[in-house]
């Protein structure tokens, strides 16, 4: 059966890299031949994260080569000569020192696309920091949870968000570079970073802090300062200790939740008229408390059928990732598959990143044994090219977007930053996200680089314009529930008939069809399906921890410890980005259109995929302690002198030896309690105590400098928060990781640069669009005269930028 990347040869280098592994497995699922280069002892993930290794390396081959030796280096050079793509995740300059860096390999194979994945890029003040997920998150400010946290200091969550994001962004970049190669016959060098991989998780607060600064206020990275008078997500606890995450983004959803809870009478009161937004924080808290008191009176078995009977209530029950495998919609979508492993037997795991109608992708076999491969890569013809290089990787690709809020629109915004033309189809009121947190605040990132056309699809003329627009597009992407696009003449059957080469993408919350497809879904509930509660706050979702508590006690003790990082939208956006880029690569090469479906719940399953699996003997993933300091003594935050904190991440025996030597604790290296990784795990509490006392002897910045120089993963924790770091850090500007753009309403604003740097066809930085801003330009391109456009406006089929829908 035809697949998306047939004949594509990929090399993957970088022992222990989650990002390289995930990027590689997406390509392997899509039909590429991926050879993983492993050291003699095997990839570090085989030991540190066996579940992750199993899932993230399915369908690959393994080849053993010691890259520190001449023989190993020659092996890589020989393979790279016949490769199309190299994915490499070593420290900056490491492979160049071995003679197998991007410039050296590309000199021998000019058609090669080389994608490096680092923490903060190859240059700048953060380039030498180890590219370990907790370190990058700590430096960026992800652990700074604000004044509302239950204790002082950073709050750590053991999820590889940065690596997941960098992987999916790398896949999109590789597909874009391959499209460029189709035109030119030449490859290029790509640079991806874990920093950029984390950017999607800051939905809008980096915009908020800059607007605060413009008003002369002190910027705060605490997202709650922007949402204290709203309740877009309320966490409820039943009498039997089960947690229910609700999402109420729109008023009718809040009303539906009130009706289920039996408190519909409050809807008659003026102070609740605009829920989930309220006059002040006190009224917002009053509403939340009423809901919590109602749900605490009955068990889950009472509430579940009532919640399920109301399709406008977006909710999910907190589970672990393993439990999420059995979710009826996950099963229906094919977002869980079973792969037979020769050692472990059947392994349930996450399905493909997208479901393609004509070119299905997915695992072909389990992860390889060490050294298991089918021999050398075979030379094959590469595109002759000869054409001029485009300005940007996806230049010439047109995407029509029909959806709202964050997950789908952010995915297409990334493609816009890589050169695609993205036209946002909106009604007269525009995407409701435009006003979620203040006019246009939340849409800085989701509308950047796009054009907007504002149509009333309830009119025949409005529908005709939309259909004509899509007839000239390469892709149509909608995130509405099934039936919405069809109602407006924008269903797959109709659009593909007019445009057979169209890639039609349904990026729904739950899926295109199935038992939950009719339900509303947003970020917090979407991540709940994939096991975010079990992974982020696993200790506290145990019913035993809340048994017998009143609502007041729950609020004071338990609920404040369940303030998770909201990743449901960003995870879904990143998975969609990878799937959409694969689909566009196939469509541009073949001219063949097809239907692609993705879901928010499937995208979140990918983000938690090292635990979203199950097999006999599966080891548990490491979880943080009850106060979220870390998962172990060597993966933890420690207080330094004063108010400073460090984040420590030690992965190898060599790093441990360097750690204790640099800290003046050299005697620990010969202490039998800490001589091996197994011994250290057995005496973890004792090691924590020794290291905690040691770190209190110096300032956090001193520890970062000294330990980084010694090759140890340690950073000073940024307690200002990710939004402030992104908006104001000069080191990021120096590295080119952030840039400025001119916002149409707010003036000059700082934002993350396009997520991947291209040596030949860079991304682009463009301002956000306003609703209807490009009406006349787009209509003129479609052949409408000025008089015809005026008639469409008079008939209100086209709504000018200054007008609101009636």
TrEMBL record:
Ranges annotated as spanning the membrane: none
Protein name in the entry: CoA-transferase III family protein
Keywords, in A-Z order: Transferase
Keyword Zinc-finger listed: no
Entry-linked Pfam families: CoA_transf_3
InterPro entries, per the entry: CoA-transferase_III, CoA-Trfase_fam_III, CoA-Trfase_III_dom3_sf, CoA-Trfase_III_dom_1_sf
MF annotations from Gene Ontology: transferase activity
Keyword Lipoprotein: no
């Amino acid at each position: 059966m035809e697949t998306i990347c047939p004949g594509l040869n990929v090399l993957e280098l970088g022992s222990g890299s989650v990002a390289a592994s995930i990027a590689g497995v997406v390509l392997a699922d899509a039909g590429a031949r991926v050879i993983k280069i492993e050291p003699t002892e095997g990839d570090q993930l085989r030991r540190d994260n066996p579940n992750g290794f199993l899932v993230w390396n399915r369908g690959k081959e393994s080849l053993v080569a010691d890259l520190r030796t001449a023989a190993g280096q020659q092996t890589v050079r020989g393979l790279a000569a016949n490769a199309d793509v190299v994915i490499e995740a070593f420290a900056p300059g490491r492979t160049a020192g071995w003679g197998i860096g991007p410039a050296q390999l590309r000199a021998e194979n000019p058609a090669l696309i080389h994608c490096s994945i680092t923490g903060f890029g190859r240059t700048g003040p953060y380039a030498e920091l180890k590219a370990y997920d907790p370190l990058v998150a700590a430096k960026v400010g992800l652990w700074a949870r604000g004044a509302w946290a239950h204790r002082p200091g950073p709050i750590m969550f053991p999820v590889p968000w940065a690596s997941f994001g960098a992987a999916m962004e790398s896949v999109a970049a590789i597909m874009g570079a391959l499209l460029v190669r189709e035109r030119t016959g030449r490859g290029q060098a790509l640079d991806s970073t874990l920093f950029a991989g984390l950017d999607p998780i800051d939905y809008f607060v980096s915009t908020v802090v800059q607007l605060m600064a413009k008003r002369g206020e002190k910027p705060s990275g605490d997202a709650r300062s922007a949402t204290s008078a709203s309740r877009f997500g309320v966490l409820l606890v039943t009498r039997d200790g089960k947690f229910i995450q609700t999402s109420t983004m729109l008023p009718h959803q809040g009303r539906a939740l009130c009706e289920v809870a039996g408190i519909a009478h409050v809807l008659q009161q003026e102070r609740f008229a605009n829920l989930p937004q309220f006059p002040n924080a006190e009224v917002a808290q009053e509403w939340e408390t009423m809901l919590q008191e109602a749900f605490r009176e009955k068990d889950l078995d009472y509430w579940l059928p009532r919640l399920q009977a109301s399709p406008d209530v977006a909710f999910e029950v907190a589970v672990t990732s393993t439990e999420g495998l059995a979710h009826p919609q996950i099963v229906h979508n094919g977002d869980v598959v079973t792969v037979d492993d020769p050692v472990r037997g059947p392994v349930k795991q996450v399905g493909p990143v997208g479901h393609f109608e004509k070119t299905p992708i997915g695992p072909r076999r389990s992860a390889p044994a060490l050294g298991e491969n089918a021999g050398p890569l075979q030379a094959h013809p590469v595109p002759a090219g000869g054409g001029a290089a485009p300005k940007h990787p996806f230049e010439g690709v047109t995407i029509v977007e029909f959806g709202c809020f964050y997950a789908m629109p952010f995915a297409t915004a990334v493609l816009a930053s890589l050169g695609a033309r993205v036209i946002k189809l909106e009604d007269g009121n525009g995407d409701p996200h435009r006003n979620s947190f203040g006019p246009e605040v939340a849409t800085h990132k989701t509308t950047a680089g796009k054009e907007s056309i504002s149509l009333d699809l309830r009119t025949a003329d409005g529908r005709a314009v939309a259909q004509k627009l899509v007839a000239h597009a390469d892709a149509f992407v909608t995130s509405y529930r099934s039936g919405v696009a069809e109602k407006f003449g924008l269903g797959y059957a109709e659009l593909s008939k007019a445009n057979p080469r169209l890639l039609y993408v349904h990026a729904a919350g739950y899926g295109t069809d199935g038992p939950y497809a009719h339900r509303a879904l947003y970020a917090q509930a979407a991540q709940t399906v994939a096991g975010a509660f079990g992974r982020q706050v696993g200790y506290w979702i145990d019913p035993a921890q809340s048994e017998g508590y009143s609502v007041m006690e729950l609020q004071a003790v338990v609920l404040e410890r369940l303030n998770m990082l909201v990743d449901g939208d960003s995870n879904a956006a990143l998975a969609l980005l990878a799937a959409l880029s694969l689909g566009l690569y196939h469509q541009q090469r073949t001219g063949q259109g097809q239907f692609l479906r993705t879901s928010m719940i499937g995208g979140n399953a990918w983000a938690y995929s090292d635990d979203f699996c199950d097999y006999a003997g599966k080891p548990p993933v490491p979880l943080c302690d009850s106060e979220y300091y870390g998962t172990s003594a060597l993966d933890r935050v420690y207080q330094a002198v004063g108010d400073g904190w460090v984040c420590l991440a030690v992965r190898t025996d060599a790093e441990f030896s360097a750690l204790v030597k640099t800290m003046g604790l050299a005697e620990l290296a010969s202490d039998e309690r800490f001589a091996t990784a197994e011994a250290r795990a057995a005496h973890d509490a004792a090691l924590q105590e020794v290291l905690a006392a040691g770190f209190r002897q110096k300032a956090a910045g001193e520890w970062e400098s000294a330990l980084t120089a010694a090759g140890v993963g340690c950073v000073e924790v940024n307690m200002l928060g990710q939004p402030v770091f992104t908006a104001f850090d000069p080191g990021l500007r120096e590295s080119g990781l952030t840039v400025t753009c001119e916002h149409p309403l707010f003036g000059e604003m700082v934002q993350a640069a396009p997520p991947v740097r291209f040596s030949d066809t860079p991304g682009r930085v463009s301002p956000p669009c306003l609703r209807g801003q490009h009406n006349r330009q787009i209509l003129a391109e479609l052949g409408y005269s000025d008089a015809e456009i005026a008639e469409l406006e008079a008939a209100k089929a086209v709504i000018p930028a200054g007008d609101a829908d009636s």
